[in-house]
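Hey team,

Filing this mostly as a record. A colleague (T.K.) asked me to run one chain through the structure pipeline before their review meeting, and I want the input and output archived in the tracker in case anyone asks later how it was produced. No errors, nothing strange. Just documentation.

Input sequence:
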Amino acid sequence: MGEAFLLRRGRGGMTTWRRAAGFAAAFALVVGVLAAGLAGTVSAAGEDSAPIVREIAVAGNQRIPAETIMAAVTKTKVGEPLDQSKVYADLYAIYNLGWFREDISADPQALADRSGVKVVFNVTEYPVIKEIKIEGLTALSPSKVLPYLRAKTGEVFNRRELQEDVHGLAQKVYDHEGIALRPVDVNFDLETGVLVVQVKETRVGKVTITGNQKTREYVIRRELLLGPGDVFDRNKLYDSLWRIKMLGHFEDVQALFPDQQEDPDVVDLTIEVKERKTGQASFSAGYSSASGFMGGVEVSDTNFLGRGETVRLRLSAGQKQTEYDAEFYEPYLDRHRTSLDVRAYNTRTLVNGDGENTYDQQRQGGSLTLGRPLSLHTGFTAGLKIENVTNGGRLPEGVEPKSVTHSLQLGLNTNTTDDPYDPTSGYRNSLSLEFAGGPLLGGTANFSKYENEFSAYRKIGAGGQVLAFRLMAGASGGDLPAHERYVVGGADTVRGYQFGADKGVSMLVLNSEYRFPIGERVKGVIFLDGGRAWKENEVVRLTELKGGFGAGLRVDTPIGTIRLDYGFPMGDDRRGKFYFSFGQTF
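Output structure:
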């Protein structure tokens, strides 16, 4: 028998496999010669004196099938002369399968009839993995990282697969889990079968805020879910940027990173904001389909003194309505992000009643509402409202001269949209409950209202095109006062009809809009609306919904978005109606 071709590690006595720099292994090739009983010598050129390979076999494998190993033997072939370079190429191919130690060899054995040789590839499998440990994690559990390694307990250790998986581990964890880390050491104990992957997480270094001229820095920092020393989490960064954007104080929010970092395990972060105009003092005169010709003054700031608070004072007078309204909103009342909203108002409106009856209505009241987030996108509100309503003139049936409402208002709100004013993706849902009267709350009005408003937005095509949908539904119980009834028809519900075309104790409204850009500050809208309000004892039938369609413009101005719509009813009366208002419909 001849001396074997060997491919072995340069040092002996190995009890562990360790990842070396660049995953490169140091090899020593020991070149032997064939047994003296063989005719000729091993030739890399395949000379005539080289023996013919008559058979190829594998020995030493226990769990890895011989067929799997033989599939890697592609150079040495039966019927061809034994070629040293081809044997070594096959040895490397078997070694690169990853399951075998470095002492694999090829043993050419002379056949009894001296017709050639049988080449036996001898392998020694790595041990079975008994345990896998991921060390150095604080932001993730090891169970989140293990799926990104092909190594599994109960299977033969595979050096090549582990090298490949560790090489791509940082990117996979970042892509799927959002955590920045890097492997620093990998060790497999050949005696115990324990595989240890040591990682080091990237930490946040210095956090800098730039671009805020008016907004105080703490208003931005308190929205950040990442701070110095925290493990860098991409998802928390994205959520932080979303929270800052949804404050409504900024046109744009970005996270910037330095081109070079002194410490590879520390990343500095810069939050750059571009402020939008939040304060305004405006004098206006115009026409609203709900209030007729009107004029007024409004002073408001949704980022008062740069502290993130909202202050609003509105005074308006018109043909059909006079209004005085004041509001203050504090988003951070305590460290739990409890919010406070206080509002007081006094309105006087000329109401179109049923038939030809028109009467004067004065509403005086106020509300106090507390809110608290339940999660990133969902919050809960609870508030109290007090309102005194006085009706004068020729009152329609069912309208009381005086009504006093003391009510408890509860709300559950979810918002995943990408912009507080002009969303292009995500959805909003607002569930509200109101309970008035009873022995606990008092007042003369006793009723309950249940409402839900859902809107969704989706980008289509390119260039800022958006499809927007809204569904509103409301129901009530008890003795609902006339001024608390649902009103359907007009600029904010079903366009194509006059304001308050339908009034009732329950309602359903559906809106759809196709929004598209026309210019830098002008957008076009094509809309389709449907809705109806039902009175007491009326059966709710969806076939009775009133429909409207039309088109409009949205013009971005210093005093807000101006909304201009022209709608047609889907009925016998096809005369269109013009609507002038502010902000998006939904």
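Quick notes for T.K.: The radius of gyration is 38 Å. The helical segments are 66-70, 84-95, 142-145, 159-177, 217-221, 234-245, 438-441.
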